[in-house]
Specification:
This protein is of the alpha/beta class. The chain has a single domain, classed as STAS domain (Transcription Regulator spoIIAA). Helix content is about 40%, strand content about 35%. It is built from three helices and five strands. Strands 1-2-3-4-5 form a five-stranded mixed β-sheet. Helix 2 links the parallel strand 3 and strand 4. The longest helix has 16 residues. It is globular and about 30 Å long. GO terms for molecular function: anti-sigma factor antagonist activity. Belongs to the anti-sigma-factor antagonist family. It comes from Marinicella pacifica. This is Anti-sigma factor antagonist. InterPro entries: Anti-sigma_ant, MlaB-like_STAS, STAS_dom, STAS_dom_sf.
C-alpha cells in the first residue's frame, strides 16, 4: 500500500481510511482494493476525504463499489469530511443522495 495515498486506523469494529492527494486512474485501483479489503475485515468503514485535492470518475467508481459491497454484505460504509472538490463532484453526480456523508 502506498502510504502517500491512503493511511488507515483500525480496531475490532471500525476501519478509517484517510485518503490524500489526487485520486485518478493511476491509483484508483489501489483505493478500490483498500476499501474492499477494509470492508472484508471490519463491520464499519469510513473514508476521510478532506485531503483529496482531485478525484476523477475512476475514484468515484471505487467509492461506489465500496458502497455496493457494504450494502450487499450488511456493513456500514460512509464518507467523511469531504474536500470542496470531492463534495462538488459528489453533488454534481447526485451521489450525495446515495452515500452517507458525515462532517
Amino acid at each position: 500500500m502506498d502510504n502517500e495515498l491512503i493511511q488507515f486506523e483500525k480496531d475490532d469494529k471500525h476501519c478509517v481510511l484517510f485518503v490524500q492527494g489526487d485520486v485518478d486512474l493511476s491509483n484508483s485501483s489501489q483505493l478500490r482494493k483498500t476499501i474492499l479489503s477494509a470492508l472484508k475485515t471490519s463491520p464499519e468503514v469510513a473514508v476521510h476525504l478532506s485531503q483529496v485535492s482531485y478525484i476523477d470518475s475512476s475514484g468515484i467508481a471505487a467509492l461506489v463499489e465500496g458502497l455496493q459491497y457494504a450494502n450487499s454484505h450488511d456493513k456500514r460504509f460512509y464518507l467523511k469530511n469531504l474536500s470542496p472538490h470531492v463534495q462538488s463532484i459528489i453533488e454534481l453526480a447526485r451521489l450525495d443522495q446515495v452515500f452517507t456523508i458525515e462532517t
